[in-house]
Amino acid sequence: MPRRIIGVVKNYDWGDTTSIAAALGMTPSNAPIAEYWWGTHPQGASRIDATGEINLSDEIGSMTVLVKLLACNQPLSLQTHPTIHQAVTGFAKEESMGIARDASTRMYRDESDKPEMLIALTPFEALCGFTDVDSAVERLRTMNWHDEADILEQNGMQGYLSWAFEQHDSPSMSDAPTWLKTIAALHPTDCGLRVAPLLHHVTLKPGEAICLPAGNLHAYLHGFGLEIMKSSDNVIRAGFTNKHIDIAELLRIVDVTPLAHPVVSPSHVDGHDVYPSPSPAFSVSRATSGSLTLSASNNHRIVVIINAGNTEAFVVAAGESASFTSDGSMWIISQN
Question: pTM for the whole thing?
Answer without folding.
Answer: 0.96
